[in-house]
Amino acid sequence: MSAVEPPGRLPDFFIVGHAKSGTTALYEMLKGHPQIFMPDSKEPWFFASELHERTPPRPQGTPQTLAQYRALFAAAHKQQRVGEASALYLWSRTAAGRIAAVAPGAKVIAILREPASFLRSLHMQFVQAYVEDEPDFKRALALEDDRRAGRHRSRHTYWPQAVLYSDHVRYAEQLGRYREHFGAEQMLVLIYDDLRADNDAAVRRVLGFLGVNDTVAIAPREANPSVQVRSRRVHELVHAVSVGHGPVSLRAKGAVKTVVPRRVRRAALHATQRHVVFTEPQAADEELMAALRRRFAGEVDAISEYLGRDLVSLWGYDRLH
Asked: 296, exposed or middle or buried, with CB in 10 Å at 0-12, 13-18, 19+?
């Protein structure tokens, strides 16, 4: 007698990252396709064991078991392709193998961005999301050796390993983990510059790769823009109240919850963050960006060779002094 299949489904495809490289926009565009189902929870994080060390508070929670994970896709129609997008799966050293163990036939989509601009945007997102407690990008980079040795770990930091920034741009190594498990034919690697230059053509390429109708009208999206924290103290205060840290914030949050609907509370929090906590990013430190490009030139050489595409010229690494 065969075992009863648990409710829900496993994805047919995964958008594995990177963050700040168009993954949110791609998720939202694919979510609007009638032949594709993607859950409202964009980033389940289920297969990256590094992200379960400590997870940020989130309204939908984080699935802890395979049954909970499958339930995210229970509403999908049988004829729909099912997918999810967790932007740190590409960085994770465990996600590729864990995905392959339960969904070996899945397709994998990755998006790569020029390393220096990617890391700058990633740092801003990490500060915003309480993954990073050092608001200065240059100082955060300089802390890497200490952090790798287990020093300078903040109690506010959810994923200590994630703030080892150089690990995020080992592109050839990261793609190699997926190719080992899925093979090149099950993988599609996009370049962020192509998404920016011709969004429609890039999305049509994804739809063809997934085997769904690539003539469906899909409006282009630009989601999750980079923002900078205005004040670390204000950011911490709003965050403490929103998640209920400390006795005062717990009492305040409890009082508000009794009289204000959840949808209104979330809208008010987002409005406060948008207008009070965050601001437009300052101009990049070009000297630092040039130093980063020199530092990661070898990685760009490696991924150019790996993909058979000249990213050295596309990203301007042939003009480094």
From this structure: buried
User: 49: which DSSP letter?
Assistant: G
Q: Which domain holds residue 269?
A: 228-279
DSSP 3-state of 7? coil
105 HSE (CA, 13 A, CB side)? 5
Helix (H) or strand (E) holding 53: none
Residues 273, 136 within the same domain = no
Confidence of residue 248 (pLDDT cuts 50, 70, 90): very low
pLDDT at 166: 97
Report the C-alpha gap between 54 and 303 in whole angstroms.
31
Total of domains in the chain: 2
Given a contact cutoff of 8 angstroms between Cβ atoms, the answer to whether 171 and 302 are in contact is yes
User: Collapsing DSSP states into helix, strand and coil, what is residue 221?
Assistant: coil
At 87, list the tokens: 């932007």
Q: Tell me if the bond preceding 152 is cis, omega within 30° of 0.
A: no
Kindly list the distances between the CA atom of residue 67 and the CA atoms of 6, 16, 36, 43, 315, in Å, as whole numbers in the listed order: 7, 21, 21, 16, 43
List beta partners, residue 189: 110
107 and 69, same structural domain?
Answer: yes
Confidence at 221, pLDDT banded by 50, 70, 90: confident
DSSP reduced 3-state for 37 = strand
Res 276: pLDDT:
54
* b/e burial code for range 19-37 (CB count within 10 A of at least 16 → b): bbbbbbbbbbbbbebeebb
Q: Tokens 């004040």 identify what position? A: 231
User: Of 280, 265, 202, nearest to 30 (Cα)?
Assistant: 202
**Element at 172 (helix H, strand E):** helix 171-182
